[in-house]
Amino acid sequence: MPQLPEKFIATLSAELGAKECEALCAALNTPATTAIRLHPDKGAAQPASSRPIAWSEGGYYLDERPSFTTDPAFHAGAYYVQEPSSQFVGHILKPIVARQPKLRLLDLCAAPGGKSTLYSSLVGSDGLVVANEINRQRAAILADNVRKWGVGNVTVTCNDPSHFGGFEQWFDIVAVDAPCSGEGMFRKTPEARDEWNDGSAAMCADRQLKILQDIWPTLRAGGTLLYSTCTFNRSEDEGLLERFTEWVGEDEIIEAEEVEINDEWGIVCGRVGAWQTFRFMPHRAEGEGFFAAVACKSPSTGGKSRNPKSRKSIFTAPDRRTAAELERWVKDPQRFKWFAVNDTYYGYYAEHADDVKILSEVMTVIHSGVCMGQIFKGKLKPDHSLAMFIELNINNINIAEVDHSTALEFLRRGDIGITADMAEGINLVCFEGLPLGWIKRVGNRSNNLYPNSLRILNF
């Protein structure tokens, strides 16, 4: 493992004190923790040889790192591999979400999707998560993880934060997991040590401030702003909050509801004006380095929610016959609205279908709702997203249950042949009741419809 940068140690020592710095650096040279977060709607049970994460419902430490690639449950979206400290954002927002149904949450800098999938389960099907990632390649990974999670209430966008400016007071919660110098990942990602330099923190802090300034107008009066980084550097954490508060004005930011913390968790709590802050340091809390802070926009800021002007129209409503075919694939069709984009059909929870339409007419959207598939001769050819969707109506679909070795061959996009319970036409391949994807039987052969881009290459 590369040595910790000397300048990093010196800066940390000045901020924390020599003794605290020494303990933290020692912890950074120990193995990183491995943790997962179970999907609350896919029936996953607590894994063997695991311990609950105190601040995360459904989160578990694993005693050893398994081969996730060879676990069909991983590919089914039954759990997400997520660093334990970062799961704390759910603990912060849970009481806020519980009191406020049908909310809109903006998750900025969202790739690869750990927090986005957490938020999608947290806000539920009547809420909307807009997960934005400016980097196109990382946004594609984010979209893949959102599809696999399968809640159906996430819109993935690929835009600069400033592009959201037209959505004035539109979001109830804005969560900014800001790009940072990554000091908190020195243990989990050793190569980050070599990439670090003594100017990166200042550069990152300026970028973080610009992101918060760009996105502040989109938060409604009384809404919640959640800021986080994976670094220890004060200039990107408490110092950044001080700079932003000075820019926006102290009267514009008020305290959020106090987040309850158990002292045994080892989280270092603090205050920066109206902000409640939380520091995770590996020698105190069981997780990687992480910083989070929460505050609210003052209700007295005034103004009204406003939609930006549409630049394009891309949604087309299906005819009655097509809508009837789409409806039979979901559990409660009355809850959904259907739209076509070119020749592909999508389903949206009715509560936020209009919001997704507005976003799609203004922003660069690369995924939204649940992609249903295409219609051929009046019948749906289902997309992989529909197989992952938690509202899929399995009562109208033939199930082809497979064993572990056959599941892996399916995930490699190999030929698994004809199984005893495989019917003519479309079948849902499942492993231990978990949907993996589609296969089509045509006489004595089968066509594996698992996406080529997702297939397992090596294991």
Briefly summarize what is shown:
The protein has 459 residues and is an alpha+beta fold.
Describe this structure in words.
This protein is of the alpha+beta class. Among the domains are: 86-301, Rossmann fold (3-Layer(aba) Sandwich); 397-459, Roll (Nuclear Transport Factor 2, Chain: A). It has 13 helices and 22 strands. Strands 5, 6, 7, 8, 9, 10, 11, 12, 13 and 16 form a 10-stranded mixed beta sheet that branches. The chain has a 4-stranded antiparallel beta sheet with strand order 2-3-1-4, covered by helices on one side. Strands 14-15-17-18 form a 4-stranded antiparallel beta sheet. Helix 1 (6-16) packs across helix 2 (18-28) and helix 4 (88-98) packs parallel to helix 5. The chain is globular. The two termini are 25 Å apart.
Report the strand count. 22
Major sheet summary line: 10 strands, mixed
Unreliable sequence segments: none
The CATH topology of the domain at 86-301 turns out to be Rossmann fold
**CATH class descriptor name of the domain at 86-301:** Alpha Beta
**CATH homologous superfamily name of the domain at 86-301?**
Vaccinia Virus protein VP39
Distance between the termini: 25 Å
Named at the architecture level, the CATH assignment of the domain at 86-301 is: 3-Layer(aba) Sandwich
Could you tell me the mean pLDDT?
94
SS content category: alpha+beta
Residue share in β-strands: 25-35%
What shape does the CA trace take? globular
